[in-house]
TrEMBL record, chain A:
<comment type="similarity">
    <text>Belongs to the bacterial solute-binding protein 5 family.</text>
</comment>
<dbReference type="GO" id="GO:1904680">
    <property type="term" value="F:peptide transmembrane transporter activity"/>
</dbReference>
<dbReference type="InterPro" id="IPR000914">
    <property type="entry name" value="SBP_5_dom"/>
</dbReference>
<dbReference type="InterPro" id="IPR039424">
    <property type="entry name" value="SBP_5"/>
</dbReference>
<dbReference type="GO" id="GO:0030288">
    <property type="term" value="C:outer membrane-bounded periplasmic space"/>
</dbReference>
<keyword id="KW-0732">Signal</keyword>
<feature type="signal peptide">
    <location>
        <begin position="1"/>
        <end position="27"/>
    </location>
</feature>
<feature type="domain" description="Solute-binding protein family 5">
    <location>
        <begin position="92"/>
        <end position="525"/>
    </location>
</feature>
<keyword id="KW-0813">Transport</keyword>
From TrEMBL, chain B:
<comment type="similarity">
    <text>Belongs to the binding-protein-dependent transport system permease family.</text>
</comment>
<keyword id="KW-1133">Transmembrane helix</keyword>
<feature type="transmembrane region" description="Helical">
    <location>
        <begin position="28"/>
        <end position="50"/>
    </location>
</feature>
<feature type="transmembrane region" description="Helical">
    <location>
        <begin position="257"/>
        <end position="278"/>
    </location>
</feature>
<dbReference type="Pfam" id="PF00528">
    <property type="entry name" value="BPD_transp_1"/>
</dbReference>
<keyword id="KW-1003">Cell membrane</keyword>
<dbReference type="GO" id="GO:0055085">
    <property type="term" value="P:transmembrane transport"/>
</dbReference>
<dbReference type="GO" id="GO:0005886">
    <property type="term" value="C:plasma membrane"/>
</dbReference>
<keyword id="KW-0472">Membrane</keyword>
Length: 609, 292
């Protein structure tokens, strides 16, 4: 065996090599440290806000912004003509890219909208010279047309279908983008004109939705399908990367300078004082340098990431953590440790959850046979009477949900607080009587199929429903659990009218009860939005009458009449509006709201340094 | 020659008598048998409707601690955890019994035929079939069966039977090959008895001890698989099982409630331990080479 250290010259050589090696290691280490320090300094200088959502967007293309997650991304990357005021509740629109609210003709059929000049798309190679070009009125026209192009697979066309003059014909004629549509024109570079087939008071709300966000034609045509993952817009943030877990965005440095007026936005010291929003007054949004949106579906992971301190800075409170967060229910108070570490707000969602019957089902629905329809009506009403909303609220929503009768939820101005609560009251004896009166017994009761997406939580919903039905004498062997592997397949079954009874939620697209009433409008039957396949000519006539009316006591009266029809026909077991608690770190200045505002608030987030 | 002597010198009734004697003297085996009998008693009670019938009842008392009314408390929708655990014992026994009986019978039949027809194309084909089935990952196979037999309530059972019979078949085949070389089989052949008669009258009775051991092993494997499959959403769907209770508890645990998990996994643990002790003792007692 040779020992290297025996010969003196070899020993020196080895020592030299050793020193060189250690020196090299040390240099490498130094290099690493330097990089680390540089990164650290860069991180300290930058304001980074890490937002979280409990689901992920399927596409970032605005014409596919049908989920709250896609919409949230769309309104931050693109511009919409209108937006919701940051703090004002009930929700109120304000101009965004538009210079002011639209000018509407006396007959309510023509909308003229001016847009702001000198607003630019963010740079992209498809633009001349690679620099972002100015946003023009024609870009809005192009963007709406895209929803009607069958090649694009857009999901928002229903908002304007049959309402904008000539747009359906444009689609039928082959969707040629150079063909002018009578009802959708750019009068000049900064003026948009929309002509309607009939008054459509909800139009302005649709212009604040991600579906109507403005996209540049040359980029869309250059990227094709890739536009859904590499979007270019003129919004407050620029997307730098996007995957199924996180979207990374940076501040759009060229975003138009518009000093924030918190008082115009609805600032109320009684509600907002403790959040530090006053410090934002007069500053130009966006205030942060980088925005990260983390899509974390698993509630436990989201909670741990939030409470860890240096990861996500905002979360809603998952169901399984409500026990640890909430100290008192009415009014909601959180544990001192939570309020010490985090800011919080809570509020009723702009939407609700409900159980629905398929009125086209031969057993539970209507089939034109008077005797059958009378009996099936009694059966549906008995099932509704058996439903214990109070128990459901406490078991699944920690008792925080707001149970209300009918389909006009508390979040819209047309909500009737004085409506009879009979339809949401538990009445076991009443249900039994109703069944007996109509000849329903163990021998005649039909199989009750509960269709649902297969998951532990949904199974518990089913088991609770089975418990409710058992109490009115519905035998367990007639109550069947029908799980689907995914929401898509469950939804497909509903759209194919295969599901006699289902449990779903609805989130409002805009603060107008028309948005829930249209779920019961006959012509909207599946595959449209009317999953109940409810068809009541009297309802449809009122809906058509009210759909052209501007907000007024008369319209509200019609809405409430329709609401009562749905209640009387026992089409739906409704409803419960969930109360959601938002938590965010104390170094973040924000007032989060995921509801109708839909992500506009992210441009006003700031970080204390 | 030794084998021949063993079989000749030790008639079947003598084997069973000695096995019984040894089993009684095995304390752990007796403990295992007691546990299994206790669970069987619980199951029979559920079958007869004596207890566990209110497992699906919901109430206003969510996530309650153990009390006289609710021995193991309640779950997130106010259901009695004890009743659910007890009722799920019946489900476990049903799955275990059905799968053990069917898989053992199928395995015995195929194994005996393959062993009896050793070194023929039939034997090779059956071996190839067993090899193919064994090469498919179990849960993938069950998922495929469950999907293919959508809506059929016994799809999980079918999948387990289709997987579990091969082990029994291999064991029985090996034993039959050994038996085939013994004199009493050769005598039966020489006397002109039909192959089916030899198989049913002389061979299968001589592998019955192995069949019992294999059945107990399959029984335990089926119960464990049912729990895992139900936990994964591939097993019991409409009803209750320990697997579903453990699946439910994934939400409970995050909220700080552990009873659902402890009861389901505890019952499973006790039954599996009991069956394993019993099965080991049975194996020791019925193996002629191990008999004292």
């Amino acid at each position: 065996m040779i020992c290297l250290f025996k010969a003196p010259y070899l020993m020196k050589l080895n020592q030299l090599l050793l020193f060189l090696f250690l020196g090299l290691l040390s240099a490498c280490q130094q290099q690493d440290n330097n990089d680390g320090n540089m990164n650290h300094e860069a991180q300290v200088d930058k304001k980074i806000y890490r937002h979280s959502e409990d689901g992920k967007p399927t596409s970032l293309d605005p014409i596919k912004a049908s989920t709250i997650y896609s919409n949230l991304m769309a309104v931050n990357i693109f511009d919409t003509l209108y937006a919701y005021k940051y703090l004002k509740r009930p929700y109120e629109l304000k101009p965004n890219l538009a210079t002011q609210m639209p000018t509407i003709s006396d007959d309510g059929l023509t909308y003229t909208i001016e847009i702001k000049p000198n607003v630019y798309f963010t740079p992209h190679a498809s633009f001349a010279g690679g620099l972002g070009r100015e946003v023009k009125a024609k870009d809005f026209v192009y963007s709406i047309k895209r929803s009607f192009d069958p090649a694009n697979g857009g999901t928002g066309a229903w908002l304007w279908q049959g309402k904008i003059l000539g747009i359906d014909q444009w689609k039928a004629d082959g969707a040629n983008y150079d063909q002018v549509i009578e009802g959708l024109k750019a009068l000049d570079d900064y003026t948009i004109q929309i002509k309607l087939t009939q008054p459509y008071p909800q139009l302005i709300y649709t212009l604040a939705m991600g579906f109507s966000a403005i996209t540049p034609r040359e980029v869309v045509e250059s990227l094709g399908q890739e536009f859904g993952s590499k979007p270019i817009g003129s919004g407050p943030f620029i997307l730098t990367s996007f995957n199924s877990e996180t979207a990374y965005l940076i501040k759009n440095q060229d975003f138009r300078a518009e000093p924030l007026d918190i008082y115009f936005e609805g600032y109320d010291p009684a509600k907002h004082k403790s959040y530090g929003l006053e410090s934002l007054q007069g500053k130009n949004a966006p205030f942060i340098d980088e925005l990260e949106v983390h899509f974390i579906n698993e509630s436990s992971s989201r909670w741990h990431s939030f409470t860890k301190g240096n990861e996500i800075q905002y979360t809603t409170v998952p169901k399984d953590k409500q026990n640890a967060v909430i100290l008192q229910h009415d009014p909601i108070l959180v544990h001192p440790q939570i309020s010490k570490n985090y800011h919080y707000t809570y509020g009723t969602e702009a939407g609700f959850v409900y159980h629905g019957f398929n009125m086209d089902d031969p057993t539970f629905g209507m089939r034109g046979d008077e005797e059958h329809d009378k009996n099936s009506h009694a059966l549906r009403c008995a099932i509704r009477k058996a439903h214990n909303w109070s128990q459901k609220n406490r078991a699944f929503y920690f008792g925080l949900g707001q149970v209300f009768p009918g389909i006009i939820p508390p979040s819209v101005p047309e909500f009737d607080p004085n409506l009879s609560t009979e339809s949401i009251e538990l009445d076991i004896e009443g249900a039994k009587t109703l069944l007996a009166e109509h000849g329903w017994n163990n021998d005649t009761l039909p199989e009750f199929e509960y269709h649902v997406t297969g998951s532990v939580l949904q199974k518990q919903f089913y088991e609770q429903m089975r418990g409710f039905l058992n109490k009115i004498g519905y035998p367990s062997n007639l109550i069947k659990y029908k799980p689907y592997p995914s929401f898509g397949q469950f939804n497909k079954a509903i759209k194919n009218r295969q599901s006699p009874f289902f449990f779903l939620g609805w989130t409002l697209d805009y603060p107008d009860a028309e948005n829930t009433l249209q779920l019961f409008y006959g012509p909207n039957q599946t595959p449209g939005s009317n999953n109940f396949n409810y068809s009541n000519p009297a309802f449809d006539q009122l809906f058509e009458q009210s759909s052209t009316m501007l907000p007024s006591p008369q319209r509200t009266a019609l809405y409430r009449q329709m609401n009562q029809m749905v209640i009387d026909d026992c089409v739906v077991i409704s409803g419960l509006a969930r109360n959601k608690i938002n938590l965010w770190h104390k170094n973040v200045i924000t007032f989060p709201d995921r509801e109708i505002v839909g992500g506009f608030h992210l441009r006003y987030v700031d970080i204390k340094q | 020659m030794n084998h021949q002597a063993t079989y000749k010198a030790q008639p079947s009734h003598d084997l069973w008598f000695r096995a019984g004697q040894q089993l009684i003297s095995d304390k752990l085996g007796i403990l295992g048998a007691t546990i299994v009998l206790l669970f069987l008693f619980i199951t029979i009670g559920v079958w007869l409707g004596l207890w566990g019938q209110n497992w699906s009842e919901t109430s206003d008392f969510f996530n309650q601690s153990p009390s006289l009314r609710h021995w193991f408390g309640t779950n997130a929708i106010g259901q009695d955890i004890a009743s659910r655990g007890i009722y799920a014992t019946k489900v476990a026994f049903e799955v275990g019994l059905l799968v053990a009986v069917c898989a053992s019978l199928l395995g015995t039949l195929v194994g005996a035929v393959a062993g009896f027809k050793n070194n023929t194309w039939l034997d090779s084909s059956l071996l190839w079939l067993m090899g193919v089935i064994d090469s498919i990952p179990f849960y993938l196979f069950v998922a495929a069966i469950a999907y293919a037999m959508k809506g059929f309530i016994f799809s999980m059972h079918m999948a387990m039977i289709l997987v579990f019979w091969t082990e029994t078949a291999r064991v029985i085949r090996g034993e039959v090959i050994k038996l085939n070389q013994l004199e009493f089989i050769e005598s039966a052949v020489a006397m002109g008895q039909s192959q089916i008669k030899i198989l049913l009258k002389h061979i299968i009775p001589n592998v019955s001890h192995l069949l019992i051991i294999q059945s107990t092993l399959i029984f335990v494997a089926a119960i464990k698989s049912e729990v895992i499959l139900s936990f994964l959403g591939l097993g019991v769907k409409d009803g209750i099982s320990w697997g579903l209770m453990i699946a439910e508890s994934t939400n409970d645990i995050q909220a700080g409630y552990f009873l659902n998990f402890f009861v389901a996994s505890g019952l499973l643990f006790i039954l599996v331990i009991g069956f394993n002790l019993f099965s080991d003792a049975l194996q020791d007692a019925l193996d002629p080479k191990l008999q004292k």
